[in-house]
Write a structure and sequence with these properties.
single chain; alpha+beta; Alpha-Beta Plaits; 3 helices; 4 strands; 38% strand
Amino acid sequence: MEEVIQVTTTGDNKEIVKKIGRHLVEMRLASCVQIIGPITSIYWWKDKVEETEEWLCIIKSRQSLYEAIEREIVRLHTYELPEIIALKIEKGLPGYMKWVVDETVSRE
């Protein structure tokens, strides 16, 4: 079975991450998107420490779809440099992992 990944991104408002999440699911690039927030992010940006309220978007998909997911997030995102991080899911409930793969479209 193909490797399953979890991709995360953040946004400065719930509506933008909902828009990104819905778009990825409707395009079948993701089987599931979860949105958590608000969260507090503290980070360096342009030589100073910033503190902002953000929303976290957690995306489940196939490894082979990462480039398409990244491209769509960048296209839709309002940030100059959005966080886009992918982690391979090492283990998971077999039925759930199969569902993630089955509900996405392979672009191979």
